[in-house]
Amino acid sequence: MKLLVAAHVSELVAFEEDLPGFDRLLTGVGKIPAAYALTRALSGRTYDEIVVVGTAGAIDPEVEGGVYDIAAAIQHDVKDLDGVFGQHASLPARVETGVDGLVIATGDHFVDDAETVALVRALDARLVDMESYALIWVAQQFGVPIRILRAVSDRAQDGATQVWDEVVERCSHQLRTVVRERYGV
Length: 185
Prior knowledge:
With 185 residues, the protein is of the alpha/beta class. 31% of the residues lie in helices and 26% in strands. Helix 2 (114-121) links the parallel strand 6 (102-106) and strand 7. Helix 1 runs parallel beside helix 3.
């Protein structure tokens, strides 16, 4: 059995309630809700794989719309004890999925301004979201393989929050197509 995970109900609108071979988990938005929900799910049942679907903002001008696999995640809203941006005081700077793909920067705020994009881009991330780092870290603690699929919803610039509301359903349909192609359901 696999676990289909999304943060926001809008990211699952294109997915049937009962998807053969998958349990479904809605975590809530942000690192803490994501970590909590996934930890509870993995504590109660064994899964062969975690498949995360959701949206992300593109911060690399070369990243076009579409669905991308996530290879690794970093945190863009932390500093270590020396004040180094992107480094956590006790967690690894980068967590890996074991899948080829893009690096995503995770933080607990919606990135929608050019100044923040420039800071995060300097960490070598190409996308931003609010859950991937936490989900990968929890999956690693339980030893469960994880695949994260992110559909580009916006350019993470001014007005991105309004754009997200308008395009999240289209992104859900793109993600559903990729899950159907990769998993046959």
